[in-house]
């Protein structure tokens, strides 16, 4: 036993030092590619080097927690300007330590950044997370602790002057909308303008009257601010049984909240994806803390802020009814109205007829008031808003009436708001309201013109009407004689007009249907080029499986498809409905289908695959919930996800389910869909709903995560043959890393991999009622809602493939 202990002792003290990072000497370098991409601290807890961002071959020079699953960044390089800007470098860049100091060079050898220290003898990545340049005597000449980005670490400080800019978003490391700084003897949090960095207002401060001194984060897990008399003010603090068992950091997050986090080191060693846990934060409610005359507040303009105490104290920015985010990924940009603003040219009666006021409880935009009335009743208050084209919201409270106008800022949803406001929205859809507005305006102009015209002009006008009537009457009988069912354009819809092609036009455009680019259950697709001024390339689908009993409804169904327009849907440009020929003309997708990208020998980047998943989800959300008529696709699969010039994923073949024969399926007569993606309810005597698309999306999401087909019978490991089964097993056993084995980008983003996997397992539940809606799916993918552990899907999936 004594010899055993001696052996262990020798192993520890001989092997361990070999893993420690030695001093980094002059002549050492790092590159964005290859094996020499980072320098690791002796314990292996921290690394300094290049981190890939955005999946577009751009890198940050950064320090990160090297043993956490998500490789959380603790520091990243910024310029040495008054408002520091992020330093982003392209692939092929190089960092070198020479007699001239530490230099970051682009592929052409031009210097992009340096810490302006030339007297360094060597560098070192310390176990504290501080990367330093040291002199020959060992004195530190510069360190990353001196210029924090958005995070501070234990033992970092004290700071008598410091600035921490939040990130713009969790994945965009540019300067965000919030700034923490020690300034003039106070610690304060400021709302700032993007991208100028101009401070708007302070939303939290120690308010010491200039008697403050320094900010410090000590090794026991306490962030505090000292005064000149050595009094200490706790900023955040936590009491753990042993802080040495945890990684710690304090970060000014993109939502403006300064949070202190811990991460158990044991979980990092076992590669368990427990993640960072919030142990303290300020301000206690960011939604209430920010109230600024300038800027939009905690959330964007026209949105409101909800602080979720039950969901890890997160900020949830929401849009009011009939409004939507300008950019779902960048919610700080605010919300836009999904309808045309009220025209100021309408009379009062028309205004009241076209718009309505809907109540909203617990919501307020406190600084949007522009007019105040007293001693009025509720009905009068509402009328004052309905007849004012500038009024977007009205508030009534005990005889007081406030009108609010766009854009509205500092929105908040909170139980402390004890009054009801009324939001102005159109009674009918946007286009119809606009048409009515234009029609009324025209009638008024027409009336004034007729009253002021001479008899001669009146006679001329009458002749024009008679001539137009004759032409319309003649065209009507000409159209009747053709006996062709052309779709009728509805002026009340927001869709784009579809062009009616002749068969000869499409035959010529496709070179006699010579270049086939796709084939599916509904027909064959050919590449073509229109004879228009732009020479537009198109994809022409010859539909050969039209159901006989609905051929007369073809035009109506095509028009429904034409009214759908979304960035993640392939746009329908026109159609041909001539004799027995039924053809659809789509925009051409030059990068083919998702199949060619996912299952090729070269795996697409993880960040590009994330965009594929989010894009398909948003396209399905539009079809299910946001277009005027709900469309259930019924055949979601990678072949029906096409990619445009910018590699934006777009859903094709939507809206065809009503047109196709029931025997189009590849799996079973009477079932629509494709083998491997078919929801279980197709095999049961139950109603088919939009949840069949949710199931298919879940399968595709797994394929996007793993870059392999759902069914691969040539697998050497039988347990991995069916992807849905294998992914579920990996999730249950805590071995998510196996799904992205060899995928460095995905492994670094393992937290998102886990989230996407959980979403997919929810989507493939056997019971349709258990599956989330696509609205819920998009929220879960974005990380906007908490995801509970999905139930174990039934084993029937394997037997149905």
From TrEMBL:
<dbReference type="InterPro" id="IPR000719">
    <property type="entry name" value="Prot_kinase_dom"/>
</dbReference>
<dbReference type="GO" id="GO:0004674">
    <property type="term" value="F:protein serine/threonine kinase activity"/>
</dbReference>
<dbReference type="InterPro" id="IPR001480">
    <property type="entry name" value="Bulb-type_lectin_dom"/>
</dbReference>
<feature type="domain" description="Protein kinase">
    <location>
        <begin position="511"/>
        <end position="785"/>
    </location>
</feature>
<dbReference type="GO" id="GO:0004672">
    <property type="term" value="F:protein kinase activity"/>
</dbReference>
<dbReference type="InterPro" id="IPR011009">
    <property type="entry name" value="Kinase-like_dom_sf"/>
</dbReference>
<feature type="domain" description="Bulb-type lectin">
    <location>
        <begin position="26"/>
        <end position="146"/>
    </location>
</feature>
<dbReference type="InterPro" id="IPR008271">
    <property type="entry name" value="Ser/Thr_kinase_AS"/>
</dbReference>
<dbReference type="GO" id="GO:0030246">
    <property type="term" value="F:carbohydrate binding"/>
</dbReference>
<dbReference type="InterPro" id="IPR024171">
    <property type="entry name" value="SRK-like_kinase"/>
</dbReference>
<keyword id="KW-0723">Serine/threonine-protein kinase</keyword>
<dbReference type="InterPro" id="IPR017441">
    <property type="entry name" value="Protein_kinase_ATP_BS"/>
</dbReference>
<dbReference type="Pfam" id="PF00069">
    <property type="entry name" value="Pkinase"/>
</dbReference>
<protein>
    <recommendedName>
        <fullName>non-specific serine/threonine protein kinase</fullName>
        <ecNumber>2.7.11.1</ecNumber>
    </recommendedName>
</protein>
<keyword id="KW-0808">Transferase</keyword>
<feature type="binding site">
    <location>
        <position position="542"/>
    </location>
    <ligand>
        <name>ATP</name>
    </ligand>
</feature>
<keyword id="KW-0067">ATP-binding</keyword>
<keyword id="KW-1133">Transmembrane helix</keyword>
<feature type="signal peptide">
    <location>
        <begin position="1"/>
        <end position="20"/>
    </location>
</feature>
<dbReference type="GO" id="GO:0005524">
    <property type="term" value="F:ATP binding"/>
</dbReference>
<keyword id="KW-0732">Signal</keyword>
<keyword id="KW-0547">Nucleotide-binding</keyword>
<keyword id="KW-0418">Kinase</keyword>
<keyword id="KW-1015">Disulfide bond</keyword>
<dbReference type="InterPro" id="IPR036426">
    <property type="entry name" value="Bulb-type_lectin_dom_sf"/>
</dbReference>
<keyword id="KW-0472">Membrane</keyword>
<dbReference type="InterPro" id="IPR051343">
    <property type="entry name" value="G-type_lectin_kinases/EP1-like"/>
</dbReference>
<keyword id="KW-0325">Glycoprotein</keyword>
<keyword id="KW-0675">Receptor</keyword>
<keyword id="KW-0812">Transmembrane</keyword>
<keyword id="KW-0245">EGF-like domain</keyword>
<keyword id="KW-0430">Lectin</keyword>
<feature type="transmembrane region" description="Helical">
    <location>
        <begin position="449"/>
        <end position="473"/>
    </location>
</feature>
<dbReference type="GO" id="GO:0016020">
    <property type="term" value="C:membrane"/>
</dbReference>
<dbReference type="GO" id="GO:0051707">
    <property type="term" value="P:response to other organism"/>
</dbReference>
